[in-house]
Amino acid sequence: MGKSLPLVIWVLAGIVVAVTIYILVSFTGAVEQNMATDQELSEHISGGTEREILASVGSFVLYSSDLAYIRVGENAVEGWIYDQLLACAAQEAGLENPSISNFVQQRAKQLYLRDLMVETVINSVDFPSDAEVMAYMHGNPELYMVERHYFQIIAADSLMADSIHTRLDWGQNFQVTAQNISLGQKAAIGGDLGFIAGGEMLQQGLPSEIALLDGLADIVPSTIGWHIFKVSETRALYDTLRVKRSAAQGLYNFRIKTAIDSVLFATENRLAQEVVN
Q: Which of 55, 97, 109, 220 is most buried as measured by Cβ atoms within 10 A of its Cβ?
């Protein structure tokens, strides 16, 4: 027993030393981590101009200038903290897929840069003058110098639209059918949309076939249903001021599209593209 006591003392001493070293290493790691976090926070406001910090979660920082990119509202900051805490929890739980995260980051940057380019192009395009608009209208007389009397039926599904269209082809009265079946706001008056220039229909996203329609049109699907249009008569342009506004917007949109297409064409000639099937 007398000889075994020193051995026990040495064992206990070794345990104490090991625990002490572990505590010191852990404390040092925590300090280093906190110092790294503090350094990251300071780096966010360094580099010339300081920005106002609204909130932070760990090393993630929300600036006042960032509010434009998140859900702005009374609880925008609280919402950001809520989202960031859950995002950090997901990372700590090992839920993150690095490949998906990388793609999301790349896609977000892609959309951001795309929007910057589109905005730059739009800002470089002048809105047309009255003289340019009138010249555009006279250059497209079937779209802007003629008004068509449009009627419309909206069906709930494609099968019903096909059935209605077949009956209209056989001679069934369009306005009576619209009153009985159409889901459109003008159903009560037989789907009568009044006199509209073809260019105005284009501005509503309808195809050129509808803008230049004479008689009964084919079925046109949309997010609100299946549309059947009919034009009963045409007349020379009556409301020039109203149509000029539509023509001006149409010409402006055309110029913007042309400018964007020019940027795309120039970039396509510089960069190789490939679609792998």
A: 220
